[in-house]
Hints:
Oligomer: heterodimer
Number of helices of chain B: 10
Largest sheet of chain A: none
Order of helices and strands of chain B: HHHHHHHHHH
Amino acid sequence: MLGFVSRRLLYLVPVLIAVSLLTFLVAALLPGDLAVAMLADEATPERVAALRSEMGLDQPLAVQYLHWLGSALIGDLGRSLRTGEKVLSAILQRLPVTLELMLFAQLIALAIGVPLGILCAVRNGSVVDRVMTVIAFGKLSVPAFMLAIVLIYLFSVRLKWLPATGYVPLDEDIVGNLRCFVLPAVTLGFGEWPVLMRVLRSDMIATLQEDYIAMATAKGLRRWRILLVHALKPSSLTLVTVTGINIGRLIGGTVLVETIFALPGIGRLLIGAINTRDFVVLQGVVLFVATGFVMINFVVDLLYGVLDPRIRHGRA
Amino acid sequence: MAALDVDLDQAPLAPARRADFAFWLALAWIAMVMAAAIAADWLPLASPSDIDLLARRAGPSADHWLGTDALGRDVLSRLVFGARISLTVGLIAPLLGLSIGGGLGMLAGYFRGRVETLVVAGVDILLAFPPLVLALAITTYLGQSVLNITITLGILSIPSLTRVARAATLAFAGRDFVTAARALGGGHVRILVRELLPNIALPLIAFFLLAVAVIIVVEGALSFLGLGVPPPAPSWGGMIAEGRDSLDTAPSIAFLPAAAMFLTVLAFNLVGDRLRAATDPRQAAL
């Protein structure tokens, strides 16, 4: 196991370096002078030159990169060009909102996907099973922003049950905080349940054919007890890893959902940085998010190894 | 949002024959949207950017078949011209990914060894970014235009198409007909182009169609965020975003482009899924 972890760790280092290099190069190589962009209307040749040397833009790219990476490694992602706020503290301040959103979204996906997965496995091949397969397929064609519009129309405009936008901090009003997360979390979580359902369904169909399930039935155990106690746990190995992979995929979705519902998370920070052309914040957020994404995938990889020894020993 | 990472392990929808009706309906819809997008200039449509402030949020009428939006612009015309953007980006970007990713994947699957290691590592690095975040970052620096968005989304579609091409090539590279071609003195280029390409073309096309569906959604998301094709050019994502402000008085302004996008994406998914079910590369490997 130790060997497996260290092999994966060794692979992680070049990937992270490449990610940071790409993040840096996207900003550095693409057309447009950062100093000119920052000064906008006030750009005179002298002022541009002064700003360039102040920001180190006149140094060779490699030096700039190493300088930027070195600072990033000790947690210094620079300061916002617009507000002067430290980029890392801006990110950390907004992180709880994004994490809360992802947590609720994942819970909603599981709350829909797991019961439906069990149902479809038990009624394998029935009308319910086939209808769910078609619905899951149709869902693939409904992007999050489309679902968001429909939800806002139904629950905010028509029924007036939930706020369409806005954010209430958790420590101010717990109920208000939860209310403003309902629509965003449903929007984000709804995209994920079909995957969870399908994974659990196929694993569970296999489990239900095992002899010990027949034994449990013969012993006269209740149907739901067999399903939830005897069959669910051995069927959820893939489900656990897929849930992990989903966390990574949710990160991209939060950008969209936070913008639509005006939640002050990392996604909003990113979009704000883009709109104000705040390249330092943009670079910092992209590096932070991509690093988080890589780390989550790394943990999921390890989890695979834990759950399936063949992968650990490189024989799968 | 699973943007751009086409799910390789997804079960095909239904046995091929049962989906026949839906398959032809989907093809017909795609053909109709394409025809409308190509012929938009010659169709008897109002201008998509003519503002008529006296006829804002109007219902359907003889002049405006699907009504007008919050600025009094003709919704039908904007839908048709919006289809142009969605289809241009949606078809050309994956085509770019197909030519680069498909080529790289074939090379990796055929030569193995160091080429494969390099290609796989490159794919892993591109996949290390949440796709939407990378798309946003690149378009910010490049600037918003149809060309730049197409290039960005094209780059983002490379990894999944590379994977598919590699997997499909791996499945065929060890087969007897390839060995035979080599024994007959066929060079690498000949084997890749004449022997392998025809065999992996169909699965690649199937995944290409699924990628089209994903790219249309991502382009929609970018436009929805106001970071896609710049206004006043109409795009479906942008129209949905604009319609949001009129949800209480005229919900159709948002729902019509949403419906158009949903049907188009669903159609590409259906056709792609049907083709893939017929040409699963894993079945070929058995």
